[in-house]
Design a protein that fits this description.
Number of helices: 6
Largest sheet: 3 strands, antiparallel
Shape: elongated
Strand order of the largest sheet: 1-3-2
Strand content: 5-15%
Number of strands: 3
Radius of gyration: 20 Å
């Protein structure tokens, strides 16, 4: 997934294999099997190109990370305590980014709800 998220375009199994081979001596069929499984699980999209497929991520790295965070929060018996524990781990720059994202989302939700009321 890391290779496909970092790529500027869709990649074939051969391209991913070549890219990975410098770091790890993996068989082509291993890479093909993993990419096919990721496609069947809905993580990768693919399109036929000649006799091969080109693969691209079905979701962004950011969406994947957000989904993981949501799963972790759902696993907690005390969501509020979990959120507080998470916030205590943030540095000043991350806290500022979180505040900015929250303010942006809150502003978007307010403008959406005010438009609905006007209708």
């Amino acid at each position: 997934m890391e290779r496909l998220w970092a790529a500027d375009a869709a990649m074939t199994v051969r391209q991913v294999h070549t890219d990975l081979y410098d770091e790890r001596s993996l068989a082509y069929t291993t890479v093909m099997t993993v990419m096919d499984k990721l496609h069947r699980k809905g993580w990768l999209l693919r399109e036929p190109v000649g006799r091969a497929y080109e693969y691209r991520p079905a979701i962004s790295r950011e969406q994947y990370t957000a989904d993981l965070m949501g799963e972790a929060l759902s696993a907690s018996s005390d969501r509020s305590a979990t959120l507080v524990a998470f916030l205590e781990q943030l540095g000043p720059a991350e806290a500022s980014e979180l505040r900015h994202a929250f303010d942006r989302l809150s502003g978007h939700q307010q403008s959406t709800s005010s438009r609905r009321r006007r209708r």
